[in-house]
Amino acid sequence: MSAIIMLTSAGTAVAACVTATAAATAASLTGPLYAGGITVTSVTTMPAIVTAITAIQTVLTPSATLSGWPMKPTDESSKIRIENCVQILTEDIPAITAAIVTATTQSIAVNGAPSTSFPDDAVDVVTKFGNLSSFITEKFVTPLTF
Q: How far is CA 111 from CA 95, 101, 105, 108, in A?
């Protein structure tokens, strides 16, 4: 039952990342209207990713705690590790949020027009969502698919 919950949640998170990647790509083409395009992603897909990963973390917490986590890392031979949830929630999501803020700021930085760094900043958001999707697939979907 736990594997079903985690696989479903991981699938939800990957689907949200794919949606966010498409939305971020489309928003990157709008220049000074970037904020309006990326807001939907920030308000809908980001919470979906956080909720899905939190569900996985909730399933893993009792066994991780029994093994001594967070005082010591979980066994590296474990296919599904709580540390991966923690990384997503405390590092990856904040990095994506910061990248969105940077791209949004740069989309209107030059008298309401995009700065020269805006295209790269917007691509950074797309890349971060893509990398997160790959990470979730590698660390949760693939090991739970049997």
A: 26, 17, 11, 7
